[in-house]
Amino acid sequence: MGVVNTANRLATVEVLEEAMTPGGISLVAQSGVFGNILLDTLYERELHVAKAVTLGNRMDVDECDVLDFLAADERTRAIAMYLEGAADGRRLLEALRRTTARKPVLVLKSGRTGPGRAATASHTASLSGEDRLYDAALRQSGALRAETLEELIDAVRVLSALPPARGRCLGIVTSSGSLGVLATDMAVREGLEVPPLPGEVNEALRGEVPTWINLRNPLDVGPSSYFTPALRAMLESQAVDMVLAITVIPYAVLREWEPLGMDAKAWFGDIASLREEFPYKPLAVCAVGNSAFVSGMREAAGPGVPVLTSPETAARAMAMLYGLRRPS
Fold first, then answer.
1. What span, in angstroms and rounded, lies between the C-alpha atoms of 134 and 198?
2. What is the pTM for the complete model shown?
3. Whether 7 and 116 share a structural domain
4. Residues 109, 81: contact at Cβ < 8 Å?
5. Could you give the number of structural domains in the chain?
6. Are residues 19 and 113 in the same domain?
7. pLDDT in tens, 193-246
C-alpha cells in the first residue's frame, strides 16, 4: 500500500493527521491495509511511529531491504514486523542478524497452522513454510517473536522505551498480591528469576513500613504511601536487574478522592522522576482497571516508562528485555 515517514510528513497511504506525530517505532507489514490499521492502533495507545512500510505482494523491495534501511535509520529505536513468509530464508536470516545487532526487532509471524499457511498463500502468495523453522531462525538471528497482535504492540512499547536488562532478576512492587503472583508465574515461565527480596531492600524498608507489609518479592504494599519508598529501594538494589510496578486501586476510591488532589500520581508517586534517577535499569508499569485510571498512570509514568494493562503481558515483555542480551 505504501510508506510513511513522520519526520518529513510523507504518507502515500491514508493516515490520520494526528497519527503523524514522530516517534521511535518503525513498522514493516507484509500486507497492505494491516499496516494502516497498526498506525491507527498505535496512535490510540499513545505510541508514535518513525517509519512504516506496507509491502503487500512485494514485487521488488522486500522485507530484507526494509530491515537494512531501518537498521541504519537514526530515528528508529525498535522495529515491529508482521511476517507471512520469505522467498529467501537465508537472506532474511542475515538481514535480521544485521539489524538485531543494532536495535530490537519484534516479529509477529502468521501461518503457524496448515489452514493458516493456506490462507497466507492466497493473501500475499508468500511461502509461509514450517513454523518450527521460522521459530528457530528468529531465535538464531536475535529477533524476538510475538505470539499475538496485542503482544506485538505491548512489547514494542517496552523495547522502544527501555534499555536491555543486564540479567534475569525481576523485582516486583505491587498494590495487589494476586496480580503480583500472576506476574511472577509468567516471568518464571519465560526464563526470568523472581528471587527473595534482596537484603539491601529489606534493610531500606525495615522500620519504614508497618508490620502488616510482608517484606518479600513480589513486594505487596497496597495502594499506600509506602509504594514510592518500596519502588525506590527496588530500583536502588544491585541484586535487581529490572523492576515491574503493578499499580491498581478501585476506581470508585480514586474518583472519590480526586477532588482533594489524590490522583494516580498522588497514590503511586512520581514514577517519571524515578525513571530519570535510574535510567540504566528497566522499569515498567502495569496498570489494570478503569481507562481513566490507566490514563492517569501514563501521565504519572511519563513517556519514558511503558504502561501496560496486563501483568502477564508486562512480565513477558520484561523477559524480552533480558532476551536482548542473551546469545542467539
1. 39
2. 0.88
3. yes
4. no
5. 2
6. yes
7. 999 999 999 999 988 888 888 899 999 998 888 999 999 999 999 999 999 999
